[in-house]
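User: structure tokens for this one?
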Amino acid sequence: METLLVVSDTSPIRALHHLNLLGVLESLYASILIPPAVERELRTRTRLCPSIDIANFPFIHLRAPVDQSQVNQLQVDLDAGEAEAIALAKEVGADLLLVDEMRARAFANRLQIQITGALGVLLQAKSRGLIQQVHPLIDQLEIEIDFFVSDELRQEVIRRAAEQRE
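Assistant:
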């Protein structure tokens, strides 16, 4: 397995944790970096998601971005986790940033950071034989934790997964 430097925002970790598939991240990427704001967001229980203690997942490592001015600039438009994750990814020259929210993805693209989200991780997991199907997992995320997937994105992911809708 090629070692990639991967940074994650909160949403992909929450989504994969909900599906009991956090181990897929370790299988695909060996280790993940998260900034302190993401760690705090994961520790905070939401209406639909439990608290996640990263100490239970030794492949997830905490690292703070050094450039606080970059974080502050990003926080004008993004939440703290997204801002710190993007700043950290840029600082460490990450090969990949895991982020789901469209606005944060747009900022990462402008900074020329390679991105994927929870659904991209699921596609990669399927291509590596780590999971059997993607579309039931998308349904589960949407129904159980209000994970938003546009119809267009859903169709694209199912097409790329070579799955047919029932």
